Amino acid sequence: MDVFDALMAGGWLMLPILGCSVLATVIVIERFWSLRAARIAPGGLGQEVCERIRQGQIDLNWLEGHSPLGTVLAAGLRNARFGQEQVRARLQEAASMVIHDMARYLSPLGTIASITPLIGLLGTVVGMIKVFTVIVSANGVERTADLAGGISQALVTTAAGLFVAIPALMFHRYFQRRVEDITVRMEQQAGQVVEQLAHHGGELTLAERRESSFEQRATKERRTMKEQRGAKERL
């Protein structure tokens, strides 16, 4: 029996199982791509921010565009002038949003791991009902093909449900652990920044926007033209 014959033997209940398998595969690939520690909480960012705090100036636009961890740190730094409690509160609030984003699609993956064995069990029940229906019929002994079909449906759907559920459950637990590890990395680097802020005695300049070289050149030209017009008016 090849794969197509096995799918046909499973009956219509194979359709939701196949749909769950496709959805689980898409989620696993997407989470492998999204849950990269180097993308969410790159190492060394906390130390770099601490160094810029010591220098007294941080570009928040650069920090927010750097990574999700940068967005968290920028949210805390914006409230540096209100004290440590406000900084920690904003860090926790921004971090909760990042953690929520990291856990995206993990609930559907866990649901798939839970329901596919139940769908397989339902297929088993339906298949056994067909078997007993054939057995109790008058000519049940002669209808061996129908008996085999019911048994095949019972076994195939159960196997297919477990085949989808076991990897889905494994990846679900794996991604949960990865989210926890990245969260710990974020907490460590955020703690470094908070500690540096506590020991920083000077002023801290938070640059919200940095002009590009083209914008700087245009600003300089406008300033020069304005000065020339002022000189002409004085003459």
What would you say this structure looks like, in words?
This protein has one domain (3-215). Helices cover 80% and strands 3% of the residues. The chain has helices at residues 3-10, 14-34, 37-40, 45-55, 60-66, 68-77, 84-102, 106-136, 144-199, 213-234; strands spanning 57-59, 205-207. It has a two-stranded parallel ribbon with strand order 1-2. The radius of gyration is 31 Å and the shape is elongated. The model is unreliable at 210-216 (pLDDT under 50).
**Amount of beta strand:** under 5%
Write down the domain tally: 1
Strand tally is 2
Radius of gyration: 31 Å
Keywords:
two-stranded parallel sheet; about 240 residues; mainly alpha
In short:
The protein has 235 residues and is mainly alpha-helical. 80% of the residues lie in helices and 3% in strands. It is elongated and about 100 Å long.
List the helices and strands and how they pair.
Blueprint: H1 3-10, H2 14-34, H3 37-40, H4 45-55, E1 57-59, H5 60-66, H6 68-77, H7 84-102, H8 106-136, H9 144-199, E2 205-207, H10 213-234
Parallel strand pairs: 1-2
